[in-house]
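Input record, target 12 of the design panel.
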């Protein structure tokens, strides 16, 4: 990555705080020179994601796994961390949070493909897992398992 590809970034290398809401958060990107076909899979894992229940205001916790095949833009990781952190005071259902994360990344990067797994910890005794993807993955791309086991409780 050259200095020209980072000169427009507003968060990397600066003292930056999370925004009050995910809608206000800025997902920054950097150029990506795709050199292979099939493309590389990039994975982000957030094992301590938090948001708020929109009804009770109680915290909800999830393990989020994002896999994407970038085309011309990569998500800049500090801006992704700040975006994900902005959900801490955001009230939304599990399904809405998971899909919103994916759609914002798609909007920012226009990847060849993206999938997200939101593995939500139980509240009220029921874990909720939410999955979303942009379509079929590119032919020949290596797709590892997301590595989050099915919730077993005390087993």
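The sequence produced for target 12 reads:
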């Amino acid at each position: 990555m050259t200095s020209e590809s980072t000169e427009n970034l507003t968060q990397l290398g600066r003292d930056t705080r999370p925004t009050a809401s995910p809608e206000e958060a800025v997902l920054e990107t950097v150029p990506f020179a795709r050199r292979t076909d099939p493309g590389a899979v990039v994975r982000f894992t957030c094992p301590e994601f938090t948001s708020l229940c929109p009804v009770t205001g109680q915290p909800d916790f999830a393990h989020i796994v994002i896999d994407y095949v970038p085309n011309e833009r990569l998500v800049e990781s500090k801006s992704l961390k700040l975006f994900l952190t902005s959900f801490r005071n955001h009230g939304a259902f599990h399904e809405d949070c998971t899909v919103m994360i994916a759609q914002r990344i798609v909007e920012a990067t226009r990847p060849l493909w993206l999938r997200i797994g939101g593995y939500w910890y139980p509240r009220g005794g029921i874990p909720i897992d939410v999955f979303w993807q942009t379509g079929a993955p590119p032919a020949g791309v290596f797709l590892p398992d997301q590595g989050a086991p099915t919730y077993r409780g005390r087993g």
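DSSP finds three helices and six strands in the chain.
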